[in-house]
Amino acid sequence: MASNVDIKELLEAGAHFGHKTSRWHPKMAPYIHSKRNGIHIIDLSKTVVAIEKAMDFVSDTAAAGKQILFVGTKKQAVDIIKQTAIATKQPYVSERWLGGMLTNWNTISGRVKHLKELESRMASGELANRYSKLEVQRYQEEIDELNRIYGGIKELNGRPGALFVVDVINEANAVKEANRIGIPIVAIVDSNANPTLISYPIPANDDAIKTIALISGYIKQAIETGLTKRSKQTANEAKTESGKE
Predict the structure, then answer these.
(1) What is the tens place of the pLDDT at every residue in 190-217?
(2) Pairing of strands 68-71, 39-42
(3) Please, what is the angle between helix 209-244 and helix 44-63, to 10°?
């Protein structure tokens, strides 16, 4: 897909700043441009190429009707991940990764189903009609807590088509589960992480809010392009079927 990845914007966002040289991961060597004041400087020309590859993949995934699960629980990423996922109607994890979210979906989906049932009963007035105000309040508190934990994945339809991850070290469990069952991962990978664990590594500063927002914006653009393509395909297929009748 045609993209407008701007290396100047990445530079202004501080995407090139890695970690201290003493904390680097040797497998990030191909993405390192130089060292400055004891800090590794990431080669943004390679970041641009990586973003473009990731965007092509994400766009194709969305066009195929598969979901992108956004994962970012560190302070700098939480709001950005949540807002981007909601804007593109994708599932997200911004609180904490629950063990087995991918590898034991049957158990996790059971809790999601329970949450949806409680919300439905609350919305219909069933709980208010059957229980006291105090009991209804307790049900509401349960709903709020379940939403805090599972709210972002209420519409996750089983196995996602891919993960978009901010900080692969912080989200090591998510990366491990996805790799275990063969789900592709797109991720911002800083100089201290192992890019070989990621299907589409994007070498960049994973601590800077501006960088996270900028790269998430590119992923958002790719999803929107893919969804538009899928919508057109669906419309064309409908016309074709209608013409056969």
Answers:
(1) 999 999 999 999 999 999 999 999 999 9
(2) unpaired
(3) 30
What's the Cα-to-Cα distance from 185 to each of 174, 176, 226, rounded to whole Å?
A: 10, 10, 17
In the sheet that holds 92-93, the strands lie side by side as: 92-93, 68-71, 162-166, 185-189, 200-203
Give, in order, the Cα–Cα distances in Å from 32 to each of 16, 17, 116, 205, 223. Answer: 9, 10, 47, 12, 29
Q: Are 28 and 187 in contact (CB under 8 A)?
A: no
In degrees rounded to 5, what are phi and psi of residue 103?
A: -85, -15
Q: d(Cα 104, Cα 52) in Å, to the nearest integer?
A: 32
CA–CA separation, 173 vs 52, rounded Å? Answer: 26
* pTM check: above 0.90: yes
- Angstrom distance (rounded) from CA 16 to CA 40: 8
CB 197 within 8 A of CB 179: yes
Query: Confidence class of residue 4 from pLDDT cuts 50, 70 and 90?
Result: confident
β partners of residue 162: 68
Q: Give the pair of three-digit tokens for residue 238.
A: 């409908």
CA 111 to mean position of chain CA atoms: 21
Backbone CA torsion sign across 177, 53, 9, 70: negative
Q: Please, which residues bridge with residue 48 across strands?
A: none
| Total number of residues shown for the chain | 245
Instruction: Write phi, then psi, for 40 (nearest 5 degrees).
Output: -75, 140
